[in-house]
Amino acid sequence: MGDPSSVPTFKFLGLTFNAGNVISGLIAFIIVFLLVFALSRKLTMKPGKGQNVLEWIIDFTNGILKGQIPGNEASAFGLYGFTLFLFLFVSNELGLFIQIAVGGKDYVKSPTSDPMITLTFSLATIMLAQFAGVAKLGYKQHFRNYLKPFVFWLPISIFEEFTNFLTLGLRIFGVIYSGEMLLKIIGQMAFSHGIATLIVSVPIEMIWQGFSLFLGAIQAYVFLTLSSVYISRKLEAE
Questions:
Q1: Burial classification of residue 52, based on how many CB atoms lie within 10 Å of its CB (0-12 exposed, 13-18 middle, 19 or more buried)
Q2: What sign has the CA pseudo-torsion 56, 173, 30, 90?
Q3: What is the pLDDT along the chain (238 residues), one digit of tens a residue?
């Protein structure tokens, strides 16, 4: 998004990749891995501080899933929910603290500030919901739900799946992208007219970073909640 000239790319096996997304996504992955590794190094029956934090996150994501997915089926999606929430949270917050641009090209930013990343997560959730529905209900009953309350409802059901895919991914993208753009604007304003604008811009930047930190956490929560809603709807015969 934004100026295409600011997007660094490279080619591999004839395909063009966004280097910024690859690097930023890899950084987010490393942070999540190191965080979970550090919190789970010494698991004991009497948990310490790190284990308590990890168990709290697991209970939190499991609680979201159990609030939407019926019965004991939520446990099957526990790992997906935990990984999804943690990765999205770190990805949302990454650009608030680290933004690296070289030659006018953004190499490090929030991965979720690119719609291709958020729509990929959205597609993964929609496909997982379809798989779960078929696994539980069978092909016939699963696709029969698209014909209810009557057969002519099929185009609307298909359109609904498409809009769910778009809104799930674009919602989080819009919030994170706009937040990063505003941070850049405030940063440019800070150095535009010397010390006067710097004094004014610094507190504004700090306030907006704090607010964006909150928004990033909320968007990770909303994404997981809506994902669990979409999955739960496919596990029941309409």
A1: exposed
A2: negative
A3: 545 556 777 788 888 888 888 999 999 999 999 999 988 887 777 777 878 888 899 999 999 998 888 777 888 888 999 999 999 999 998 887 887 877 777 788 889 988 999 999 999 999 999 998 888 888 888 788 888 777 777 888 889 889 999 999 999 998 888 888 887 787 777 777 777 777 777 787 788 778 888 888 999 999 999 999 999 888 876 6
CB atoms within 10 A of CB 49: 8
**Residues with Cβ within 8 Å of residue 124, at least 6 apart in sequence:** none
Whether the Cβ atoms of residue 217 and residue 90 lie closer than 8 Å to each other: no
Residue carrying the six token digits 């990343």? 117
Q: Is there a contact between 234 and 142 (Cβ–Cβ < 8 Å)?
A: yes
Strands of the chain, DSSP E: 9-12, 15-18, 100-102, 105-108
DSSP code for 100 = E
CB 83 within 8 A of CB 75: no
- Closest residue by Cα to residue 8 from 91, 129, 106, 87: 106
